[in-house]
Each structure stands twice: as C-alpha cells, then as structure tokens.
C-alpha cells in the first residue's frame, strides 16, 4: 500500500474514517459492543471469572458472609438523622409524613447496636482466622453502607482483609472505605453477585435488614433446603427482630416446609455467640485460628 503521505486527500480522509470506526476497535476494548444485549452471556462469564481469578490470586480460600440492612448505621449517625427528622417535624407539626420519619428514625436508632455487633463480629472472625498470612474465613459483604460497612470495618480494625461485592444500581451505591482495595468488586448482575457470596462461604450471619437481606437469605435457605450448595451454619442475628419479621414456625405448621427445615438456621445474640456457633460447626477451637477448611 502507498505510504499515507502519498494518498489523495479523499483517500486520506477515508482512511481516517476507517481507523476511527467502532468496527475497527478490538472487541475487548469496544465497550459499546460489550454492552450489547447479544453479549450478555459473555458479560455473565466475565463477572464470574474476574472475582474468581482475583480471589484465587489473593489466596482467599474461604469466607464468612455478613448480610444486613443499609439503613442500620452506628449510633452517632442514627442520632443525627433522628435530630434532622425532629427538626423537620417541628417546622411542619401537622405533616403525617414528617411524624412518620421521626418514628422510623427512632426505630433505626434503637437498632444501631446491630452495627456495633456486626463490627465486633467482623473483628473477632478476622483477628482469629487471618493470622500468619492465612486467608480463611475472610469477611465478605455487599460492600455498601450500614451493616455491610460494619462487617468490613471490623476486619479493618483487625488489620485484616475483607471483601466487598458492590452492585450497580440506579441510585449508585458507593463502596464503603473499609474494604480491602484489591478485594472490592462491582457487579451488574445480582445472580453472579449472589453466586460469589456463597462459592467460598463457610458460614453466613444475617443481621436485620430489608428486601435485599431477605432476598439473599431466602435464596440461601432454598439452596440448603434443596441441597444445592455446601452445608454451612446460617445464623440469624437478633431473634427478636427476625421473629417479628418472619414466622418461620408458621411455614412448618402450614406444611409448606418440613419441620427439619427449621434446623437449617439458628440464632445468635452476641458476636461471640455467632463465632462460637461457626467454630463449633467446623470443629475449630473457639479461641484459636481455624486449622484449614472443614
């Protein structure tokens, strides 16, 4: 081919259009192409492989999953939000929505101790299990605020690694600052995110939460009910909350689940109790480093 300097102006312009055309881009760097509906199966595979490969490279052998609500924050923040709601109510005392906001803020403040408990649980698990550069029982959360932040923060307090599995949402979810940077992932697909929550899980602790927490919890219970995943301890933290939200016994009484399915999970009231349940389940000394995977 003639050198570009010898091309006519018309062909030079045509060549410029050729090399700047999206079709000329390598497929791997063509983000518009990768976002096409037809490429969804490829995106599924990438979201499976990327975290899997990085976790292998980071020597993460097993995890402890922490679920819980984004709105359950530590007490100072809950108090600040309550005060803001009270100020608004003072300005509009006849507004039922303003009164409702105050009532809800009070309930959140009452639950702020769960943030502290999740943080302490993350610290206990991480300080007990991540010694001598071992990466067993690594705390993994959804990577966002609230209880998720608390779990990652506990690992951070122990100078240990933790994982965050963030999800792309219409109202963007930012990762909390306590996640290990190399172990912070972002997903487009809930299904692949849920898979990574459970692939390496040795235990799961569900703190109080809303639709997202319930969705993840019930998927886990279904997988265990149908024996489609490894057996792990499933711990519901704070029985008073869970009993007020879900009548599990009624499901058994109605005959829609078996009585033995109620044994798929147990309850804990303190971080120490939750860790004892996990350690006992896997035959580890409660106060010592777990000796590999069960």
Helix and strand arrangement:
Layout: H1 9-19, H2 31-34, H3 40-57, E1 63-67, H4 75-91, H5 96-110, H6 112-129, E2 138-141, H7 147-157, E3 162-167, E4 184-187, H8 190-199, E5 201-206, H9 211-225, E6 234-237, H10 239-245, H11 248-253, E7 265-268, H12 271-281
Parallel strand pairs: 1-2, 1-5, 2-3, 3-4, 5-6, 6-7
Helix pairs in contact: 3-8, 4-5, 6-7, 6-12
How would you describe what is shown here?
The chain has two domains: 51-72 and 112-281, Rossmann fold (3-Layer(aba) Sandwich), CATH 3.40.50; 76-107. The protein has helices spanning 9-19, 31-34, 40-57, 75-91, 96-110, 112-129, 147-157, 190-199, 211-225, 239-245, 248-253, 271-281; strands at 63-67, 138-141, 162-167, 184-187, 201-206, 234-237, 265-268. The chain starts with 8 loop residues before the first helix and ends in a 13-residue tail after the last helix. It has 294 residues and is of the alpha/beta class. The chain is globular and about 80 Å long. Helix 3 (40-57) runs parallel beside helix 8. Mean pLDDT is 93; it is low at 288-294. 49% of the residues lie in helices and 11% in strands.
CATH architecture of the largest domain: 3-Layer(aba) Sandwich
Strand content: 5-15%
Number of helices: 12
Approximately how much helix is present in the residues? 40-55%
Q: Based on the structure, what is the oligomeric state of the protein chains?
A: single chain
Question: Any idea what the shape is?
Answer: globular
Query: How widely separated are the two ends?
Result: 65 Å
Main sheet: strand order: 4-3-2-1-5-6-7
